[in-house]
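re: ur question from earlier - yeah i can do the single chain one, its not a big deal. heres the input i used so u can compare w yours
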Amino acid sequence: MNKPLDGIRVLDLSRLYPGPYCSMILADFGADVLCIEDRRYAAEPAMPSVMRNKRHMSLDLKSAGGREIFLRLVRDADVLLEGFRPGAMKGLGVDYATLRVENPRLVYCSITGFGQTGPYRDMVGHDINYLALGGVLGNIGTGPEALPAIPGTQIADVAAGGMNAAIGVLLALLARERSGEGQYIDVSMTDGIVAMNGYAATFLWALGETLQRGRSMLTGKYPWYRVYRCADGRALSIGAVERRFWERLCEHFDVPEWAPLQHDEEKAPEMHAFFEARFAEQSRDAWFEELRPLEVCVAPVLDPREAFESEQVRARDLVVEIEKDGRRQKLLGVPIKLSETPGSVESPPPEFGEHTDQVLSSLGYDAEAIARLRRSGDVS
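and the output i got, formated as tokens:
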């Protein structure tokens, strides 16, 4: 059965995590993704899972020969991804204005920290910086008197960068079906983080209240949306937001009189202390087994190893194994489940430049020409 993106050709010049995460989504659903890097400027090896299902070639875009090869690839491409600072692609002579002349149908996506415009466009940054400027980091933690807590996963890179870029690419490809023309996509990870702040925006603009970490519904203000330490030192999460879930929790712990007091701020400290003491009476997993059937929105707080080995993750095929060099390699699976045209993990992450000769051959270069390109340093 064909995949949704079969026949779509993607050139990925991005590095690190956001761009490769975007192209991973496209590759999982059938796109032919060719990653292009210059060996002299190769970044640290990307996380293996985001490189699966892709091809890789080494190419020097600063050389005349390398640029000619790249332009040949662009003429038949559908999508180009890049994650350099604003202006860098223009300096190489491969910006959107230049490449759209070569291929008017090209969808060209740039992923940067702050976007192509604005006073911060030329700043360098990483995930923590985008979270900070976007208003998310300032609302994560135990209280306003403590420093913000740094998330252990790259929210800006993955969600605000990679996922938004994938959405933008798919929208542009759909628009191209109607217009016949490609377009330019400007993805800013800070923009994406700001746009995630719907809860904080609602409170600010509707009620005039600025959320404080540890003092809002989503950061532990109330006992029904909180993390509790258990007898074994592990933690349990409770998310009994709806009234019926809170009522069931109160009934189970034999405090039904608290059911009408879900949002009572004066009573909250007493309720906090009560639940903290009760959850300290037995282990995390014991509490989960006890509360799970009651439908009170409960889940154990797992570390990554526990999460990858959990029965739910296994049942959803979110960890897969694939053969590479005679060994089985574990990779993260495909989280988007389509009933008729599902994505899949079919090939392991490529070695650096593994498909360079294959790509050059497909462009009409013979063995002698390829050897000459290698000697000149256009490819390596």
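The CA atoms of residues 57 and 273 lie 59 Å apart. not sure if urs matches, ping me
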